[in-house]
Amino acid sequence: MTTVRLPLFPLNTVLFPGLVLPLNVFEERYRAMMRELLKTPEDEPRRFAVVAIRDGYEVAPSAPGMPDPTAQPERGPSAGFGPDPLKALHTMACVADAATIRERADGTFEVLATGTTRVRLLSIDASGPFLTAECEELPEEPGDEAGALAEGVLRSFRQYQKRLAGARERSLSSGTELPDDPGVVSYLVAAAMVHDTPTKQRLLQAPDTASRLRDELKLLRAETAIIRNLPSLPAFELTRAPTSLN
């Protein structure tokens, strides 16, 4: 088992390998993380793990559970995640490679990172200025019939895009090129579908590419059928938590 210790960045979203993640970093714990990453030589990857929050807050006034409007804002690396952050976060994360880390005059950071590989969190250390995690690196296995499944997912995804564009009264660019590598297809479609965090986390955690593609095929067919029979798209965004500035 290959393990690596990485800085940990919890978010109310799921990052997939190959996807780009822009970040506006303003909390002190994550500023400290970026300052530490900047010490890494430019010719080496500046890696950190992005993990979806199971029960807690990106910018937390209190601990996990029901919000307490009277609570004072917490401070420290595990603020918002309770005494055991491992219980507040999902156990599978995605490694992000920060291609750009730019510090602004006010001390905040503008970061552009790309997801690379999946990791499983084994333990979390909150003794420093920011969370770090001991992570097990996970290979991406193709599984059975991944190629054929990818073709089916791409066809269904095209139909889903058309239905979604129509429900939102938006035009769809027909010239968009989609990849043909099954693994890339599985992650691109997982990121592009309009679904909640638990569903996207389930796709990230799929045991292999073929399993992820099978799940996506079911989701795409179901969602396309729903959108086809609705006069307009439900306000999915209203069910989400407020967007964090991180």
Automatic annotation (TrEMBL):
InterPro entries xrefs: Lon_prtase_N (IPR003111), Lon_prtase_N_sf (IPR046336), PUA-like_sf (IPR015947)
Family annotation (Gene3D superfamilies): 1.20.58.1480, LON domain-like
Annotated protein name in UniProt: ATP-dependent protease
Region (Disordered), start-end ranges: 59-83
Domain of life: Bacteria
One example GO MF annotation: peptidase activity
Ranges for domain Lon N-terminal: 6-224
Pfam families: LON_substr_bdg
SUPFAM superfamilies in UniProt: PUA domain-like
Originating species: Streptomyces monashensis
Keywords tagged on the record: Hydrolase, Protease
SMART domains: LON
Example of a GO biological process term: proteolysis
